[in-house]
Specification:
- By secondary structure, the chain is α+β, with helices and mostly antiparallel strands.
- It has 2 domains: 44 residues; 172 residues, no CATH class.
- Helices cover 18% and strands 48% of the residues.
- It contains 2 helices and 13 strands.
- The strands form 2 sheets. Strands 1, 2, 3, 4, 5, 6, 7, 8, 9, 10 and 13 form an 11-stranded antiparallel sheet that branches.
- A hairpin with a 7-residue loop joins strand 3 and strand 4.
Length: 219
C-alpha cells in the first residue's frame, strides 16, 4: 500500500510541476553553407556550431530577436542501434550571445548531458534534454533565475544531414547539417492551488497509510 501511495504522490507532484513554459524557439538565419559540423574518429563524435547567426522568437519571457549561437558536444558512450534507429549520449554546452565566441551579452546559455537519436539512413538527428532527470543548467544575464527554473528542456534538431545518418565504428558518423530548436522552463510557473491541494491529499494519504501500517505492526 505504501508504494502505491508513494506512486500517487509522485504522480501528482509531476502533474503539478509539468507546466513548462516556452522560453524561446530558434533557427539559423539563411546560410549558403551548413552551420552544423560533426566529426568522428570511429570512437568519438564531436558536434559543433560556431558563431551561427540565429533568429530567436521570444516565448513568455520576452527575450531576444537575433543572436550568435555556439554549440559544442562530444559523445560519451558508444552509439546503440534499436531496430532502424540509433541513440548516443552527449555532453556539451551552448550559448546565445550578442558577440562571437560566446562574448557580449549572455542572452541564454547552458550545459547539458543527454542523448541524440535519429533514424539510420535518414536526414535528421535530434538532441533532447529534459531536466529532470537529465542534466541541464541554464544561465542568462537578461533573464532572472526564476525564468529558468526546472523542469526545463533544451531541444535541438539537426536537419538535411549530409551524408545521411550513419555509424562509423562505434559512433555516429561525420555529417554537416542545419539546425533549429526550443528552450523551455517552468518560468515562474507556481503550481495552481488545485494541483497543490491534490498533492497535499496524496501526501496525507501516504502518511495515513504509513501510520496505519506502523500501528498494526505494534499491536
Amino acid at each position: 500500500m505504501i508504494k502505491y501511495g508513494l506512486a500517487l504522490a509522485m504522480l501528482l507532484f509531476t502533474t503539478a510541476m509539468s507546466n513548462a513554459t516556452l522560453v524561446a524557439s530558434f533557427s539559423q538565419n539563411p546560410s549558403a553553407t551548413p552551420t552544423v559540423t560533426a566529426t568522428d574518429n570511429g570512437t568519438v563524435t564531436n558536434i559543433n556550431i560556431t558563431d551561427a547567426s540565429t533568429s530567436i522568437t521570444a516565448g513568455n519571457a520576452g527575450i531576444l530577436g537575433n543572436a550568435i549561437f555556439n554549440f559544442a558536444a562530444s559523445s560519451i558512450d558508444a552509439a546503440t542501434t534499436i531496430a532502424t534507429a540509433v541513440i548516443q549520449h552527449y555532453s556539451g554546452s551552448f550559448c546565445f550571445t550578442s558577440g562571437a565566441g560566446c562574448s557580449g551579452t549572455n542572452f541564454l546559455s547552458g550545459t547539458f548531458s543527454d542523448a541524440a537519436f535519429g533514424g539510420l539512413g535518414g536526414p535528421g538527428l535530434v538532441v533532447n534534454v529534459n531536466n529532470p532527470p537529465d542534466t541541464l543548467n541554464l544561465t542568462s544575464s537578461v533573464l532572472t533565475a526564476a525564468d529558468l527554473i526546472a523542469p526545463s528542456t533544451f531541444g535541438l534538431t539537426f536537419a538535411n544531414l549530409t551524408p545521411v545518418l550513419a555509424i562509423d565504428g562505434t559512433t555516429i558518423a561525420a555529417f554537416t547539417a542545419d539546425f533549429s530548436g526550443t528552450v523551455s522552463s517552468s518560468a515562474v510557473a507556481t503550481p495552481e492551488p488545485t494541483s497543490l491541494a491534490l498533492l497535499g491529499v496524496g501526501l496525507l494519504g501516504l502518511t495515513f497509510i504509513a501510520k496505519r501500517k506502523h500501528n498494526k505492526e505494534n499491536v
